[in-house]
Amino acid sequence: MARDAQPVVWMNGKLVAFEDATIHVLSHVVHYGSSVFEGIRAYDTPRGTAIFRLDRHVQRLLDSSKIARMEITYTFDELMEACRETVRRNGGHACYVRPVVYRGYKSLGVNPAGVPVDVAIATLDWGKYLGKEALDKGIAVRVSSWRRAAPDTFPFMAKTGANYLNGQLIKLEAVADGYVEGIALDSFGFLAEGSGENLFLVRGETLYTPSLASAILPGVTRDCIMVLARELGYEVREEQLPREMLSLADEVFFTGTAAEITPITSVDRVPVGDGKVGKITKRLQEAFFDIIEGREPDRHGWLFPIETSGKVQRAARKAR
């Protein structure tokens, strides 16, 4: 299928034309933010288009739905194949894949009991989230005045639409003040994450990343970086990190399916290290892109060819 083919969206088991993929204005999700979603990338490789860590993303979508008490009627295998089918039908090339589970239209009111739960999957041509130059030269960020909510207020282990109002405010504030992104602290003042990215700091030969206790999303790319860093011989520590670690770090970077591995070269206009992209960050970028772009063997099973269908291994349930 050509890139200029008519785009389609998978909605509740059927493929519909892109312009017909609509919901009612009185849908529960519009008024109360009742949705969970995933952001997934498909990459062009020498062996054809493959979706990055599709199993872990689909599992996290199911986990998020369970936390949000939104019952999905589709199985793990059905959602896996639906993502592949949507990419194939939209041209079968590198793209960004957006599955979303949301409460539809029946009645208004905070209580969602009886409101239908709908599922949709769309694809977009979305380049480097923070720009190609950001990956090569790094970005300037600020510590946001907006904090992540306390752990008993919002379920940050779930990727819910409602949670992302916090991320929007972090991003808007950063851009308005002349930065590319913001870094949120958690409710106790420890480092958390960006508006939509996980955070890593490097000091010496050790990588530090906030633990799940700091109201962060258990990132899929975050997990990849921890695996690759350990393979390269670096120590990786997940723990609560004080804000001043940003001043002491030799290198800082974001990770995420959209952001991939984006270096941070200054925080609050203070250079990180020597103000340039660090050598460990570069090594991790190279190791990551070599695998997902097919230059190195996929030794971890992170790539799922879109032409492969049928039953697949369920993702591990470990929370990392």
Q: What do these coordinates show?
A:
This protein has 320 residues and is α+β, with helices and mostly antiparallel strands. It has helices spanning 28-32, 54-67, 76-89, 132-137, 164-176, 220-231, 245-248, 279-292, and strands spanning 8-11, 14-17, 35-37, 40-45, 48-52, 95-103, 117-124, 139-143, 181-185, 191-194, 198-203, 206-209, 235-238, 251-256, 260-267, 270-271, 303-305. It has two domains: 8-127 and 299-305, D-amino Acid Aminotransferase, Chain A, domain 1 (2-Layer Sandwich); 132-277, D-amino Acid Aminotransferase, subunit A, domain 2 (D-amino Acid Aminotransferase, Chain A, domain 2, Alpha-Beta Barrel), CATH 3.20.10.10. 26% of the residues lie in helices and 27% in strands. The strands form two sheets. Strands 8, 9, 10, 11, 12, 13, 14, 15 and 16 form a nine-stranded mixed β-sheet that branches. Strands 1, 2, 3, 4, 5, 6, 7 and 17 form an eight-stranded antiparallel β-sheet that branches. The longest helix has 14 residues, at 54-67. The relative contact order is 0.16. The model is unreliable at 310-320 (pLDDT under 50).
Brief description of this entry?
The chain has 320 residues and is of the alpha+beta class. It has eight helices and 17 strands.
Helix content: 25-40%
Specify the CATH class of the largest domain: Alpha Beta
Q: Note the beta-strand portion.
A: 25-35%
| Structural classification | alpha+beta
What string, H for helix and E for strand, traces the elements in order?
A: EEHEEEHHEEHEHEEEEHEHEEEHE
* Full CATH superfamily name of the largest domain: D-amino Acid Aminotransferase, subunit A, domain 2
Low-confidence stretches: 310-320
Give the terminus-to-terminus CA distance. 37 Å
Could you tell me the CATH topology label of the largest domain: D-amino Acid Aminotransferase, Chain A, domain 2
What does the average pLDDT come to? 93
CATH architecture of the largest domain: Alpha-Beta Barrel
Task: Give the tally of structural domains.
Answer: 2
| CA-based gyration radius | 20 Å
